[in-house]
Amino acid sequence: MKLIIAGTEKQVENNITISKLIELENVETPQYVTVSVNDEFVSSESFDTQTLNDGDRIEFLYFMGGGQ
Amino acid sequence: MGLTNEQILRYSRHILLKDVGVKGQKKLLESKVLIIGAGGLGAPVAMYLAAAGIGTIGIADADVVDLSNLQRQIIHSTPDVGKPKVQSAEETIHSLNPDVKVITYKQFVNASNILDLIEDYDFIIDGTDNFPAKFLINDACVLAKKPFSHAGIIRFKGQLMTYVPGQGPCYRCVFKDPPPKEAVPTCKEAGVIGCMGGVIGSLQAMETIKYLLGIGELLTGYLLTYDAITMEFRKVKLPKHVANCKVCGDNPTITEPIDYELPACELNLNKK
Ligand SMILES: [Zn+2]
Question: A68 and B174 in contact by Cβ < 8 A?
Fold first, then answer.
């Protein structure tokens, strides 16, 4: 199936979980990433169990602490 | 009160704009903006807002100018090393635009002073470099119903979002709680390309001016991310409302500002 990850279409295995996708995408600091699926946030407790559907739009949002 | 001839000339490129005009320029001259952190982000924000004729600019920062700041904090110059940042920033603003009234706060912003600090201002800029401060500013602005611009920069990346009370999610809706100490690197540890502050800070200034003029679409409900390496800007849509947000959700548990502990590395640097 295909997902739209950060705006880019990608082919992934069917019924992939969010945790698996985080691993596949080499997400930096995976414990602290915010994930949205179709513009709604997913609680980190569901990352291991929630599976994704064909056409889902996924965004990874990262802490960015700098500024000074 | 009308504009003086000098002001009409100084702001002529604004006045020519249909969305600004004399009326809009007068609005800017009557506006008050507070910039928390006179650093990589705060420097360009302060300079563009000063040039634009924001009537009152408050600047809060407890630090003094260090040589390592000058690679990005363009409001400070080499002779300013060792000077309080708020003083150096005030001097630059005054020479740029004497119309601007500058109010300086040479202090750390914390849970006991932030509500008093933001009270008088129309818009707040988060130009801080650590998560405790970013969450503190968010919570205080949500509680006091003040609009603000959040931004962060690190390495070759930057991001920003705009919070307007009642019009979209807050910073805590997106990021929930500060990450544990040292779990996520800051600029001091990871580095940042100098002009990243210019890119993101200029966008914060742009959001401020649009908010004050009441024009255009703001980054409310969006996180704008910028990657200088791939040269990509992305406007990531956020949920309209996050019911379980601890400060702006349906049953908020945060009812006053919180002082989170600073990472050890930051504390050491503050001591020197
Ligand atoms: Zn919120």
Answer: no
Chains A, B: CB contacts within 8 A come to: 87
Q: Which of B123, B116, B127 is nearest to B89 (CA)?
A: B127
Min CA distance, A57 vs chain B (Å)?
Answer: 11
**Domain-embedded: residue A48:** yes
pTM of the model: 0.94
In a domain, A20, yes or no: yes
Q: Do B239 and A68 touch (CB under 8 A)?
A: no
Question: What are the tens digits of pLDDT across the range B208-223?
Answer: 999 999 999 999 999 9
In this complex, which of A59, A64, A68 lies closest to B40 when CB atoms are compared?
A68
ipTM for this model? 0.94
**Nearest by Cα to B134 from B218, B232, B247:** B247
In a domain, A68, yes or no: no
Q: The domain that contains A26 carries what CATH number?
A: 3.10.20.30
- Are B84 and B39 in contact by the 8 Å Cβ rule? The answer is no
Domain that holds residue A18: 2-61
A7–chain B Cβ distance below 8 A for any pair: yes
Q: How far is the CA of B170 from the centre of ligand 1 (A)?
A: 4
Cα Rg of chain A (Å, integer):
12
What's the gap in Å between the CA of A53 and the closest CA on chain B? 19
Hey, what domains does chain B have and what are their CATH numbers? 16-237 (3.40.50.720)
pLDDT tens column, B116-174: 999 999 999 999 999 999 999 999 999 999 999 999 999 999 999 999 999 999 999 99
Q: CA distances (Å), B165 to each of A51, B115, B169, B176, B271, in order?
A: 34, 16, 9, 18, 36
**Chain A residue numbers touching B236 (CB-CB < 8 A):** 36, 59, 61
Residues B151 and A65: beta-carbon distance below 8 Å: no
Number of domains in chain A: 1
Least CA distance to B171: which residue of chain A? A63
Give the span between the Cα atoms of B249 and B173, in whole angstroms.
8
Spatial neighbors of B271 by CB under 8 A, at least 6 apart, are: none
